[in-house]
Amino acid sequence: MKNQVSMTERAVGALILVGLVGICVWVYERQSRFDASVLVVTAARQGVDGPAPSLPEADSPFRDFMPDSLAPLAPPEQFNAETLSEKIDGKAELYLSSGFVSLTCQRFARVSDRRSWLELFVYDMGEARNAFSVFSSQRRAEAEDADPTRFAYRTPNALFMAHGGEYVEIVGSDESLMEEMLSIGKRFVESRPQAGETLGELALFPRDGLDPASITLLSANVFGYEKLDGTYTAAYAMGEWRLMAFISRRSSPEEARSLAADYERFLIDNGGRVVETGLKIPGARVIHLFDVYEVIFTRGERLAGVHEADDQGAAEALAARLYEALP
Question: Per residue in 2-45, pLDDT tens?
């Protein structure tokens, strides 16, 4: 008996054939388009040996900072306040609370070996105090001072800087890239000669016993108190005691006094009590909270004091020196 092919089967077969031809045309067209970013990123993830294929030079906003030994390994990325957590999940809040504007970053590899790579992060923080805040708040314990600018330090495989309103991180895959990192940092600073704004509060801390590397600008929720922000802290060694002084500039003397009173109430509400003091600082208060002492005072538009000192006498001595140093 002869097999019969129905009209329906013939129509379906024709449609399938047309579809296959269309797929072949699409595949051919896609293969004819070279996408460097896909190739480079895939190679980086697979750890392929050999030279790193470069993206077009125009694709890198950092090309003027790069030594000849490095080439782009992936396209630049940009993030705003809404998307920052996609790049630095878990740390975004620190930047956002410090005035974050935008982040531009890009990965580069050695021309001779793409397995040796670094990533450059440039955070636009809007102004110098914001950049210094994130820089100082994240200083690593193993950090060593670095040369590119006043606020710069290095770890075995990374360089961190605050320059003007920008905070910069350069993180490498290994320690051998430090020479390139320092070169990038130097070129970055040289490209912004007017960006090195001064932070006047830094000069107000008394120098004797001060650990300069410890100076930190806390942007928000300072010492657990939500009203206290924009506060510089610094560590001191006084004999056997390790102390922390703080300075917070307010908009007026009245605001400074009001905030000092609010902070005192906050400490008392959390178990503190006012203790007698011989300090010759107008309006100074010493609060004993659990096993530590807090000294609070104002001078002009600045709220200042000593935070969580183990010894009342040492805390009062440092507070007196700090008071005299304030204008």
Answer: 445 555 555 545 556 655 555 554 444 444 333 333 333 333 34
Residues 188-235 pLDDT 10s: 999 988 655 568 889 999 999 999 999 999 999 999 999 999 999 999
Q: Which residues pair with 169 in a beta bridge?
A: 121, 160
297 close to 283: Cβ distance less than 8 angstroms: yes
pLDDT of residue 140: 81
Range 200-325 has CATH code 3.40.50: no
CATH 1.10.3710 fits 38-190, yes or no: no
Sequence ranges of the domains in the chain = 38-190, 200-325
- The residue type found at 166 is E
Q: What are phi and psi of 60, to 5 degrees?
A: -120, 115
The DSSP secondary-structure symbol of 311 reads -
Beta strand segments in the chain, E: 70-72, 77-79, 102-110, 117-124, 144-145, 151-155, 158-163, 166-172, 216-218, 231-238, 241-249, 273-275, 285-289, 292-299, 302-309
Q: What is the phi/psi pair of residue 284, to 5°?
A: -65, 145
Q: CB 309: neighbour CB atoms within 10 A?
A: 26
The DSSP line for 127-183 is SHHHHHHHHHHT--TT-EE-SSSSEEEEETTEEEEEETTEEEEEEESSGGGHHHHHH
Q: Tell me, what amino acid is at 286?
A: V
CA–CA gap between residue 32 and residue 10 (Å, rounded): 34
